Amino acid sequence: MEYKPQKRLLGINNTKMLKSIELGYLTAILHLAPHKLSGVNICPKASLGCAMACLNTSGRGRFKFTQDSRLNKTYYFLKDRQKFLLQLDNEIKNFKKRAIKKGLKPAVRLNGTSDLIWERYPIKDGKNIMELNPDIIFYDYTKIKNRLSVKLPSNYHLTFSKSESNDNEIKELLTTAFNIAVVFNGSLPKTYLGRQVIDGDISDLRFLEPKGVIVGLSTKGKAKSDNTGFVVNVN
User: How open is the CA angle 44-211-51, to the nearest 5 degrees?
Assistant: First the structure.
């Protein structure tokens, strides 16, 4: 599990995330090698459908150099976590300066293609990455329901993701104000599971959305051929 030093961990050229600029935000994202590609499962609650439909190979992810980079960053995280976290913190602070210079608000998504519990990793003085950067909004999707049962950093927003195998957890969350992301095949319905459905493809800024909604996402990449039940068919 060797890794090469990384000059940069965060990316800001994701097409969907560039839409955030229109809403006044500059966003950065961290992409790692998802599920078990590194030999260590960094998406512990990934279902079969989730793993098969993962967006890891969409867009620039289809290129070998991108996959190699994500794998290398994952090895870096696994083998030298403290050094990784310190570099990540430094990059985020520099990213904040860049955003402010452009007249934009900084926002960071750490689990672009992973589901790591970042709030549990202390970096300096027992503080995690969110606590070290309290004036930056962090946001992610997760399938780890227990993360929603504890007090999260006030600047960390999580959206729960539906899969073909977590219906019981979805039922529990429907009694809360947490938003739930659902991948639909076809036109988005107006409601689903008794909740209003909003278009989650307009932007990636989940933290700006009202509470208690279904975040509807259209099928992309491998999800278009899903047959596991991960994708909800509406037509």
Answer: 25
How many residues are given for the chain? Answer: 235
- 161 strand-pairing partners: 181
- pLDDT tens for 64-105 read 878 889 999 999 999 999 999 999 999 999 999 999 999 999
Q: With CA atoms as reference, report the closest residue to 136 among 26, 51, 40.
A: 26
Distance CA 109, CA 118 (A): 11
**Residue 78 phi, psi (nearest 5):** -75, -35
Whole-structure pTM value: 0.93
H/E stretch holding 127: none
- Two tokens, residue 56: 């890891």
Q: Where are the domains of the chain?
A: 10-230
Q: What is the DSSP string of 9-43?
A: -EE---HHHHGGGGGTEEEEEE----TTTTSS-S-
Structure tokens, 17: 């995330």
Q: How many CB atoms lie within 10 A of CB 79?
A: 12
The distance between the two most distant Cα atoms of the chain, rounded to a whole number of Å, is 53
How many other C-beta atoms are found inside a 10 Å radius of the C-beta of residue 233? 10
